[in-house]
Amino acid sequence: CSAPCTGEISFEDYNTMVEEAGDFLRGKSRAIIKHLSDEMQQASDDMEFETAARLRDRIRAMSAIAMESSVHAYGIEEADIMAVHVDGGQACVQVFFYRAGQNWGGRAYFPRIDRSDDEAAVISAFMAQFYEDKPVPRLILTNTIPLEHTLLEEAFTMKAGHKVEIVRPQRGDKKSLVETTVTNAREALGRKLAENSAQSKILDEMTEALGLESRPERIEIYDNAHIQGSNAVGGMVVAGPEGFRKNQYRKFNIRDDELTPGDDYGMMREVMRRRFGKLVKDEDAGEQVERPDLLLIDGGAGQLAEVLAILDELGLDDITAVGVAKGPDRDAGKEHFFMRGKPPFMLPLKSPALYYIQRLRDEAHRFANGAHAKRRSMDIKKNPLDEIEGVGPTRKKALLHAFGSAKAVSRASIQDLAKIDGINLALAERIHAFFAR
To answer: Which tens digits make up the pLDDT trace of 152-172?
Structure first.
């Protein structure tokens, strides 16, 4: 570890590394590589071959990164280059970052827009939001002058503490850079539109396969995870025409202590009541909430019946729910589907709708299992002393200092426990009895 708190590196060596990192980010990578090369040669001369090898690896890594980031910046010291492209009612803003005369890469963003928005409106709204939590460079090059251009410049100048210019270059190398950025934006949006088109086609196929009245815009998929009822977690995954909406996933730690361990029906009831009870409460309060058009439930007729009962109880019987039960050998492709008012049915093995539903179910399964594993891990790390009445932070610390670990405390006699400051005989007996159980 290169942090000085571990005692494995001196403060002087640590500060040297910090200075090197700063120099590297300021574009002085070649000077650092030269310095490291000198150190490597000195280590080799001193026959400290392990140190020399470590320095050699650092030089190789730094050289590789320096080559990747050294795309010629045409004399630009510090700038963000933004290009917006609008097509098919969607937009892409491609951004590249130039710092210390080097291109440090970029990213494509896809802001939501109204069909009436032109490129100037899109880039104006995007810039205003983009720099809310980011430092503003001295120069912003763009293919479209944003609306309220002067106002944005003044606001950015005040925020940054230095003059900020928003420029649409008309000639030369800077114009070429912007044109390259426009090409990136156009290609990125093209890929996005193609993906959305394919997604829309799959949704249409699923709509037809399940006999839905219209194509769902918001699908919620539910799955539970537990081991013999312990650390039970319900997972909710959300998908729509744009694919998975990972920022809207939600986990439900099962709280009902009266549930029989492993009661999947009871777990599903709790998840549904919490999820849709909150939705109804928010709607009654006049808040803007997005209702799902379709629920996919991992389970058969029994699980579906529990879900429908909660939806009916809350007055949400207009939401379509589908139970997806695995085949007799839990084989993909042999799933049975359950819907209100329909007999169980299967989909053709090569149906794109079936493949899509399998993907949705697998994602819900992955998410629920991950949440369960995390909860189980946290539970394992929890100190058993935390569960003993009368053992607060101070007494816990005294016990751990005296015995070294909770396991050692569990082996201690009542007499040994009672010798610890703050532990009287009654508490020593309680601690001993806790571990005896």
So the answer is: 999 999 999 999 999 999 988
The phi and psi torsions of 367 (rounded to 5 degrees) equal -65, -45
For residue 371, which of 222, 226, 247 has the smallest C-alpha distance?
A: 226
Show the DSSP H helices in 211-262 as ranges. Answer: none
**CA distance linking residue 201 with residue 188, whole number of Å:** 20
Contacts of 387 by beta carbon, 8 Å cutoff, 6+ apart: 434
Among 69, 93, 126, give the residue marking a domain's end.
69
Residues 399-425 pLDDT 10s? 887 887 788 888 889 998 999 989 999
Q: Tell me the CATH number at 286.
A: 3.30.420.340
145 and 8 share one domain: no
Q: Are residues 223 and 364 in the same domain?
A: yes
CA–CA dist 270, 313 (Å, integer): 13
Nearest partner of 364 among 231, 235, 216, 250, judged by Cα: 235
How many CB atoms within 10 Å of residue 382?
A: 11
Please count the structural domains in the chain: 4
Which amino acid does the sequence have at 152?
L
